[in-house]
Amino acid sequence: MNAYPYFLELLQVLALAAVAPLFAGWVKMLKCWSQGRTSPSLLQPVSDLRKLFAKEVLLAENASWIFRFTPYLVFGIAVLAGGIIPILSVDLPLARTADVIALVALFAIARFFTALAGMDVGTAFGGMGSSREMTIASLAEPAMLMAIFTISLGSASTSLAQIVSSIQSGQLLLRPSFAFAILAFVLIALAETGRIPVDNPATHLELTMIHEAMILEYSGRHLALIEWAGMMKLSLYCFLGIAAFFPWGIAASRDMRALGLAFVALVLKLGVLGVGIVLVETGLAKMRIFRLTEFLGAAFLMATLGMLSFFILE
Amino acid sequence: MGIEPLQAVCVALLLLLAMSVLGLLLHRSQNFLVAVSFAVSAAASLLAAGAGARCVARGSVSSVTLLLGLPELPFTLRLDPLAGFFLVVIGLLSLFVSVYSLGYVRGYLEQRPVTRLVVFYNLFLAGMLMVVLANDALFFLVAWEVMAVSSYFLVVFEDERVENRRAGFLYLVVAHVGAVAILLSFGIMAGLGTGFESFAGYSFDMMRQTSLPPAWATAAFLLAFFGFAAKAGVIPFHVWLPEAHPVAPSNVSALMSGVMLKTAIYGIVRVAFDLLRDAPWWWGVIILVFGLLSAVLGVLYALMQNDLKRLLAYSSVENVGIILIGVGLSLIFRSFDLHLLAALALTAGLYHALSHALFKGLLFMGAGAVLHATGERNMERMGGLIHRMPWTAALFLVGAVSISALPPFNGFVSEWLTFQAFLLSPSLPQPMMKLLIPMGAALLALTSALAAVCFVKAFGVTFLGHWRGRDLPRAHEAGWAMRAGMLSAALACLALGVFPPLVIDWMDAVTLQLVGTKIGTPVAGLGWLWLTPVAADRASYSGGIVFLGLLVCIPAVYLLLHIRPGGIQRVPAWDCGFEKLTPRMQYTGTAFAMPLRRIFGFLFGIRERVTPVTRPGQSAFPVRIGYSLRVRDRVWSWCYAPIALVSFALARQVGRLQQGRIQSYLIYSFVTIIVLLVFLR
Prior knowledge:
The structure holds 2 protein chains of 2 kinds. Chain A has helices at 4-34, 44-54, 65-84, 100-120, 124-154, 160-168, 176-192, 211-214, 220-245, 256-283, 292-313, and one strand at 58-60. Chain A is an all-alpha fold. The radius of gyration of chain A is 19 Å and the shape is globular. In chain B, 67% of the residues lie in helices and 6% in strands. Chain B has 24 helices and 5 strands. In chain B, the strands form 2 sheets. Chain B has a two-stranded antiparallel sheet. Chain B has a two-stranded antiparallel ribbon with strand order 4-5. The N and C termini of chain B lie far apart (64 Å). Chains A and B meet through strand 1, helix 3, helix 4, helix 5 and helix 11 of A and helix 16, helix 17, helix 20, strand 3 and helix 22 of B.
């Protein structure tokens, strides 16, 4: 049996694990430049992770096995998702294991257990973070599914490898449902990865936190795993957007040149996406939590409109 | 096995009926009664489930005629793949719940004798088995009544409390209104088949052969649908569910929620797919719309509840809605002759029926264990139970993860199949469908996301954090019988999530019988790992590999990082530097659901009141603050209160006839005789 796809799978996962902190560093650098501050180096998140891995873990007296299990689960799911999304190549053995619906559900498991871990220690901040995060997710996840359905209707498949192949073969360029889906996906990706205007990832005020509030009690290697998984989640959503909307460059054949080209294309696209993220984050302010209903409702509406327009026009 | 499946089920029925009679005789020795009775019902359930599984695997149809019933219409039993499937659903969960009851019912022994519980439990199981097997309308209705009445007596088992009696009464009323509708529906189908001449038209075989004129067929379908929907708990007929399920003993709640609602689904499927042959597309639309309504409203009401069992009851309303979505889609596809898609949608609905029985049974069993240990049903007074009841907590977590449709458990598989059915529907020619299908998919996605929130709340508030009650908790772990029942249900949930192609391959006989095709997931070689309903490049999911992936990745990461020796130090919670942390500072269930209550509040009748108590002259600094929240089901005030008002008004008007004087009564009799003589010669 040919071992090349498995090698590719491993390469992709390692690339994700390595690129995620660098991408987070790149976004931080651009943000500082756009705000006129001196930026930390590109490798700062890597140093932060190294520091956290070396530190000791302190567990609350009340923490149960769910609290200890969650960091490993969240990181494992991020790794598994990295093996499913076509980042460098379409020829992945794990791509048939889970389609986009299963991918959304995998992220949902990670969120489920993180919310439980937030409630585990019995502090007010943890419960607050869990409550807000689950509320936002309950509105964002349906919108995400609708956006994905719109794309999958266009390429007649819910398998990501199939979607990438059909877009690369040039069938899907100018559909109105596509436009609705892209718009909805951008709004939802901002919500799910916890960026402004939904959640400020750099805040230190606990009452404004959503994702950070759930992980306040974590320390040491647990916190390192969760932070790393958070960075990987941001990269994964960028890769998902690239695969679903701009997949040109992902290797469809098996030679090394295509792979190299795919890697270069990936770096370029991530660079552009970083600029886009920073423009949104610097230009908008964080919304009040009850204004998020309108934000996510707009995303949901646009995704459903995309699906409706597919049914009616195509 | 040399025994035919139908014979095995008859033996199971006889065992259950015999045990319910024997239970009366064993009233003196309660411990022995509990042990024997639930062992017998477990054995009977196992027999029934095995027989059903055998029947579906073989795709066989067999029937037998009993010597009871009317002269022209003896009771007939028929075991075909559809009945076999529902026998598996009933038998499997009853097996687990009977094992669980061995431990649970003992908890009642110190307060009261449980003879009633045991006798009616066996009758209830027997009634459900008979409903599924019945092949003529009379036997069906007799079995339906046995099921309804025995479950009424089970619901009012603790009848010293007024609210239990009220809940039981409401349940009985709604069940009988539904039964009347079902009776009328069968009457239409039977009467128009034989021209109102003989009783033979009441047998299902005769109903299958007659073709009704479209208007009468529609009337029969609507009556049957509303009758069965009242029993299934479809909104707006669901009002008895959140009252009756919490007050019943928890093993009974598990059976009612897990299995009795499925017999109503069986009824709908039987009438719409089997007895009434040519269903127009808009019947499926009706089922789909009611399913969507129940799903969304059910989960939203569940989110607002603080009583653990009421939350689970509303969640059953939601899941019945999801099953009806699959059934409705299947009926729509079948009416457009898209048989493969109809098979896919029907498989999705039936898979969800089986999955829901398992995980809802597991959740109710867990709630029963918590109730048994703490004496509390109110989540706001619980918390931190994961430390005292680790097994119950872990098994309840399995149920919560399954019901939130998360891989690798079974709830995700049925939801995945339903989404695939929605996505394959662009091939429909009807314009209204083009609007309904995207809206349906959107509402289903919303429902599953809200269900996850609901169960994070249920598990988090009950088991995590600190104990929120006043007194010290006296909770202890559940006994071995309760744990065995829950563990087997949890393992079944995992098995259904990891091996869906095997189950779907087994279920092919059912879709073959009802829709005419099967999905045909290839099972040979390594095919049993991949769920590829239509085509492999269209969509594929492998529950087994996802499960394996999680099993490999997580310990790998753990082992890579756990290279240093020594345990982890335990310290007080950090909480950003607050020192004086009390259990009152935790998030309560009401607080957890607050954002969603604000967003979706227009759907409920909410009344929130804050009453500060202040010293005179210091209105800005209250001494004490009171808060009261009332969330009410709007269906009561919009549907049922007007009906009650109108009925009472009508009754008062009719009551004017009762004058109390014998002269008027004599005049009534005289006028009636004249009328009959003149008009009915």
